[in-house]
Design brief:
Structural class of chain B: alpha+beta
Largest sheet of chain B: 6 strands, antiparallel
Number of strands of chain B: 6
Order of helices and strands of chain B: HHHHHEHEEEEEHH
CATH class of the largest domain in chain A: Mainly Alpha
Number of strands of chain A: 0
Number of domains of chain B: 3
Strand content of chain A: under 5%
Radius of gyration of chain A: 18 Å
Order of helices and strands of chain A: HHHHHHH
Radius of gyration of chain B: 25 Å
Largest sheet of chain A: none
Mean pLDDT of chain A: 78
Strand order of the largest sheet of chain B: 1-6-5-4-3-2
Shape of chain A: globular
Oligomer: heterodimer
Number of helices of chain A: 7
Distance between the termini of chain A: 33 Å
Helix content of chain A: 55-70%
Largest interface: A-B, 82 and 81 residues
CATH architecture of the largest domain in chain A: Orthogonal Bundle
Strand content of chain B: 15-25%
Mean pLDDT of chain B: 72
Amino acid sequence: MIDDTRTVPQRLVAFLPNLRRFAISLCRSPEFADDLVQAACERAIRSADSFAPDSRFDAWMFRILRNLWIDHLRRAKTAGPHQDLDEAGDIPGPDGQAVSHARLDLLEVTAALMKLPEEQREVLVLVCVEDLSYRETADVLSIPIGTVMSRLARARKNLARLTGIEAGDERSSGTKGGLA
Amino acid sequence: MTREEFDDETLMAFADGELDPATSERLETALASDEALAARLAVFLDSRRTVADALKPLINDAVPPHLVESVGRMIERAEREAGRDLRSGSPDNVVALQQQHRRLEPQRWFMRVAAGLVAVVAGVTGFAIGRSTDDAGSTSDVNLAAALDSQASGQDVPLSTGSVLHVISTFRDERGALCREYQLNDRENSTLTIACRRDGEWLPRLALTSPQPADGYVPASSQETVDAFLASIHAGAPLSAEEERAALAGGGGNISGQGE
């Protein structure tokens, strides 16, 4: 039971930074992320009744935003020539400060993240950035927990490969045979 | 003594603190003497920290004022609306809300709202989409089922019936069945359908018909129905062009992304 008597709109305002971070992680473009956040808020307000007050608000909001994003992806494919998402924009750092050595690494990580397939990136972000559990992530994405785990493991191995943080002695996939 | 094997998911769950105590204990014992295992575990520990370090700071980004304002206005309106509903005793005044949305800032990437009634046929599973054309059309004509079997998403394909097929996307439902979302346009109507393949047949699961809008898009009002439906069948992300090709060719059910 989560003790929070605030209404959906009230919570929404406080949650905007989280929602925006999630949106940027998904769609890689801050401007686009803002459109996505706005649409998600609109939908959340409209369907506020469907939010169970004792459930997790963050998971509920992530789910709404993520569904809008997936929906956009579906549609983007039909729109004919459109902006290539890979070129849609570099994620700016958290602030506009000078690029330090550490920042360079982060940019590299961000670039690698953006190369991951959509389904791998979203589990990665929900678990490693938003700190949702596997179960909560499964609920947000409406997929079985086993699928969350196999995607997440693949995502992290891919990321390790892309950023060169991978371990010296890597055995491919251990005992697991097939993919999900 | 045979050495116990731990797969990637187990190592990852351990790194994320989600592994059950009994397995954790066995894994810890094994880690003490197995460097390769420790190296594999490190991938999962490091990757989590790396991703967190890279993206968590985004939360300190100032939310653009226009976004805050626009959400604020939305909330205000919703609350006004809610107050009115309470008084009038109608709990969910959908119509009024929709009228309001017309005044919202344009959502660049949403389909434009078009007026028009939408007929909904959900849960249609009783018939399969015909594969044979009775009237043999010209050679360039294709019947719908065959087109769904072969055509890539994003193209306009004229059918023997005179309508034009436009496949929007291909995805898998919860059970892994291959599904396609497509639009059939003729002079008067536009029908948006989601059909899934079972035993070689395309079975429509949802169909929405609306009068042909000027811009060729299904009105946004039907979009919500589609969204709700897709969520209900746990539709996966759209397949990439390559995955789609493989899936249509009847190739394996591998829906993994890159790598491995």
